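Project outcomes to date are best conveyed with an example. Our students and postdoctoral researchers have been running inverse folding experiments weekly, and each run begins with a structure described purely in tokens. The record below, which covers 466 residues, was selected by the lab manager from last quarter's runs and is presented without edits.
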């Protein structure tokens, strides 16, 4: 087998230590990989002005695959998440997080074996946020049909590759009827094309409860980005924590496999870091590349090491990074070398899943502009006219709760009010501009959303309390 060039990002904190451990294990197992090291992390800020140099993205694009150690993301400020930037820049639309019980690691459950497929570039991770008023910050949650179908299709294809039987959509469509509703409908559309697999759905809050009571009931879970982020960490906790949790970010043209835990700067340089999450991510990468026999051999050596009781301190053992690494290497000799699975051309069989691009959807019925939501800043209930031009005031809400028409409920009101204006007949953009020109000058409007309907169905949600 010819050698595969893989981009290696050593990252921050403990990243260089656990990267070195994985490289040493791969070398001992004669894995046919050449590493092309690339930079990313806090130390790149002064050198390049950002945490992710263009050269690193170019390396991943060129090699098509990367293994990434953890990098630090500042909380509440500082540079953007390097992980999110990589995923969005390379359109790595599926985050795949296997969760499987491991021998020698004591947890509450012994029979966990599921895979999370998380939509990886949309949702609140679009990072579209606004400070609307001094009192109100807004984040836009973007869910698209194409992005949702990509994630769903990857989930079903993954189920077939892994011999799974059931794919479950996780959502909150009972409350977020438009965004999660679209995610659920997209999943159901895809599910109909996989009659050989069972499919169902579950609310995210119910999933969390079920995961900590009967995790064995789940097989493949498909989730929107934010829910997937939270649920995958919960699943990691079921099998020993983030120190044993692998992850892969998969796109059509590239894949980045990463340890999903943090950079742990408090233990960096002390030689006690656990390399297991990055190692398991590396094994996930090997299977993606078709190097299945190498992945199986290293995994078996890892399992023998854990069974023997050699573990790092975070898992209840007393081995340091070097001792744990060398224990795995010493077990390689006890594992028989498998013959690599090849296809008819003599090329190693890969678990790489190709998802064709989703076509953009056209409205099935006329898409008609019928009104606007306009957000205004006011220190009290704004006094607005009943109509302006062709538009009539139908509702005012505050923090998502309707306060007009009707009696204003006894609730906390902040300084940003949403007013809804609907017309009796279809509107033009000029009508909206005329409306804004005549909007009461005593109020500052901070945001506007155009409202449409498809056929007779309004494409906008109600406020709570309506």
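After processing, the design step wrote out the following sequence:
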């Amino acid at each position: 087998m010819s050698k595969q060039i893989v981009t290696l990002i050593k990252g921050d904190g403990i990243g260089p230590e656990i990267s070195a451990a994985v490289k040493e294990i791969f070398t001992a197992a004669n894995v046919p990989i050449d590493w092309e090291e690339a930079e990313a992390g806090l130390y790149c800020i002064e050198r390049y002005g950002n945490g992710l140099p263009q050269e690193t993205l170019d390396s991943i694009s060129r090699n098509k695959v990367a293994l990434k150690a953890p990098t630090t993301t500042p909380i509440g400020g500082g540079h953007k998440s390097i992980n999110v930037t990589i995923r969005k820049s390379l359109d790595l639309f599926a985050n795949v997080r296997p969760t499987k019980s491991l021998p020698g690691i004591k947890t509450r459950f012994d029979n966990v074996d599921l895979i999370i497929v998380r939509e990886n570039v949309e949702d609140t991770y679009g990072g579209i946020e606004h400070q609307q008023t001094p009192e109100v910050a807004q984040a836009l949650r973007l869910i698209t049909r194409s992005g949702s179908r990509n994630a769903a299709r990857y989930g079903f294809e993954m189920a077939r590759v892994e011999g799974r039987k059931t794919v479950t959509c996780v959502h909150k469509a009972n409350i977020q009827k438009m965004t999660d509703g679209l995610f659920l409908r997209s999943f159901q559309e895809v599910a109909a094309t996989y009659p050989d697999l069972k499919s169902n759905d579950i609310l995210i809050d119910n999933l969390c409860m079920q995961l900590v009571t009967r995790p064995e009931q789940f097989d493949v879970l498909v989730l929107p980005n934010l829910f997937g982020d939270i649920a995958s960490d919960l699943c990691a906790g079921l099998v020993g924590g983030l120190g044993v949790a692998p992850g892969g970010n998969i796109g059509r043209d590239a894949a980045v496999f990463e340890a999903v835990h943090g950079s742990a700067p408090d233990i960096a340089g002390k030689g006690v870091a656990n390399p297991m999450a990055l190692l398991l991510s590396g094994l996930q990468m090997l299977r993606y590349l078709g190097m299945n026999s190498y992945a199986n051999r290293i995994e078996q050596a890892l399992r023998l090491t854990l069974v023997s009781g050699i573990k790092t301190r975070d898992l209840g053992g007393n081995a340091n990074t070097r001792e744990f690494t060398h224990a795995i290497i010493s077990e390689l000799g006890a594992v028989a070398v498998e013959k690599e699975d090849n296809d008819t051309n003599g090329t190693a069989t890969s678990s790489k899943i190709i998802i064709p691009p989703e076509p953009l959807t056209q409205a099935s019925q006329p898409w008609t502009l019928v009104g606007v939501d306009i957000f205004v800043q006011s220190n009290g209930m704004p006094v607005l006219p009943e109509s302006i031009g062709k538009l009539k005031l139908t509702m005012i809400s505050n923090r998502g709760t309707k306060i007009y028409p009707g009696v204003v409920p006894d609730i906390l009101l902040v300084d940003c009010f949403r007013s809804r204006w609907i017309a009796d007949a279809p509107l033009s953009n000029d009508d909206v501009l005329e409306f804004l020109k005549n909007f009461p000058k005593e109020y500052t409007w901070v945001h506007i959303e155009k409202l449409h309907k498809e056929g007779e169905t309004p494409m906008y949600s109600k406020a709570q309390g309506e």
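Residues 343-348 have pLDDT under 50 and may be disordered. The first helix runs from residue 15 to 28. The training component of this project remains on track.
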